Amino acid sequence: MDSHRTIGRDRRLRQTIQSLAEIAGVGGIALALYFAMPLDAELGALLAGSLVVVGSVALVPLSVRRARQVLVSDHPFLSAAQSLVSAITLLIVSFSSVYFVLATGHQGEITGLRTKIDAMYFTVTIMSTVGFGDITATGQTARGIVIGHMVVDVVLIAVAVRVVSWALKQRQDPDTLEAIKQ
Asked: For the chain, give me the number of helices (H) and strands (E)?
C-alpha cells in the first residue's frame, strides 16, 4: 500500500517539475528568440508586425486549447499557469519587437527607447499600466500602436484569464469533467 502511495507521489512530483520546467522553457525560449531576431531594416518591421498579428490572433485558440488541458490535467493550476505564461510571453515579445523597430527605425516616434531591453521594459510598463514616463510614445504612429496594445492587452488577456478560470471552475464539477473527457 505504501509503495503505491510513494509511486503516485513520485509521479506527481515528476509531473510538477516537468510543468514548471515547461513554464520556464517557454519564457526562456521566447526571450532567446526575441534577442536573436534581426529587428533592423525592412525585415525587422515585417517580422515585428507579423509577430503582433499572429500573436494576437493565436492567443484565443491557444487559450481554448490550454483550457481543455486544464480540464483533463492532473495538475490544473500548473496547466493554468502554463496558459497564462504563454499568453503573456507572446504579447511581451511581439509588442517589444514592434516598439524596438519603431524606435530605432523611425526617429521621433518613441523617446528614451534604444535597446531591446528598453523595448521590453516599455512593453511591460504598458501591460502593467504603470507608465513611469521615462520612455514615451511621442509620434502619432507610436501612440496609435500603444493604444492598440492596451486594447489587445485588456481584451485578449481578459479572454485568456476567463477561459482558464472557467476551466478551473469546471474541474470542481465531476459530471462536467467526465462529459469533457469523453
From this structure: 7, 2
Cα gap 6→152, rounded to integer Å: 46
Distance separating alpha carbons of residues 161 and 73, to the nearest angstrom: 17
Q: Which range is least confidently modeled, 37-51, 64-78, 115-129, 162-176?
A: 162-176
Q: Which residue, 52, 117, 60, 54, is CA-closest to 83?
A: 60
Cell of 73: 490535467
Residue type, 145: I
Residue in 67, 53, 36 with CA at minimum distance from that of residue 166: 67
- Cell numbers given for 125: 510598463
Can you give the pTM of this predicted structure? 0.77
Q: How far is CA 82 from CA 20, 73, 95, 131, in A?
A: 8, 12, 20, 27
Residue 156 one-letter amino acid: L
- In this structure, the dihedral spanned by the alpha carbons of residues 113, 48, 164 and 176, taken in order and rounded to 10 degrees, is 180
Q: Provide mean pLDDT across the span 33-49.
A: 83
